[in-house]
Design brief:
The chain has six helices and three strands; from the N terminus they run H-E-H-H-E-E-H-H-H. By secondary structure, it is mostly helical. It folds into two domains: about 60 residues, Winged helix-like DNA-binding domain superfamily/Winged helix DNA-binding domain (Arc Repressor Mutant, subunit A); about 70 residues, no CATH class. The chain has a three-stranded antiparallel beta sheet. About 10% of the residues are buried.
Length: about 150
């Protein structure tokens, strides 16, 4: 039996995909969003892509700029400060709860990711990927201990 997508799911999927890219930093604040390039990368036509970008604009994740199209919205410093304050409250207790379960393989994976972040001339995108890989090691441990 083949699965038929209901109307609107292409746009919904695009919104989800682009939101994830923005939130994770794969699309950094201030980056111009070329509709042509995004449509090619995501293998979609520009019509649903435009609708997805409009939805993201209503969420404040992208903004329209005269003669530039859409760009990823800047992140206010207060939001960054709030995120770090929250991390300071949550992360120490989380790490303490799972540190006994960390394996040598986990440490090796974290060291590899750290090396990727410390590499001379590392691009912002590669740094972000290495940073995510570093934290994903501990997140996997946490998910194993606390399945949803």
């Amino acid at each position: 039996m083949s699965t038929v997508k209901r109307p609107g799911t292409v746009v919904d999927d695009l919104v989800e995909n682009l939101r994830e890219r923005i939130v994770t930093g794969a699309l950094a604040p201030g980056v111009r969003l070329s509709q042509q390039q995004l449509a090619e990368d995501l293998q979609v036509s520009r019509t649903p892509l435009r609708e997805a970008l409009q939805r993201l604009a209503t969420e404040g994740l992208v903004i329209g700029q005269a003669n530039r199209g859409m760009v990823v919205a800047p992140v206010p410093l207060s939001d960054v400060e709030d995120a770090y304050a929250l991390r300071l409250l949550v992360e120490p207790a989380t790490v303490a709860a799972i540190v006994e379960t960390v394996t040598d393989d986990d440490i090796a994976a974290m060291e590899k990711a750290l090396g990727g972040m410390e590499r001379a001339g590392v691009s912002t995108r590669d740094f972000q990927k290495a940073h995510a890989a570093y934290h994903e090691v501990m997140l996997k441990r946490f998910r194993r201990m606390h399945p949803s």
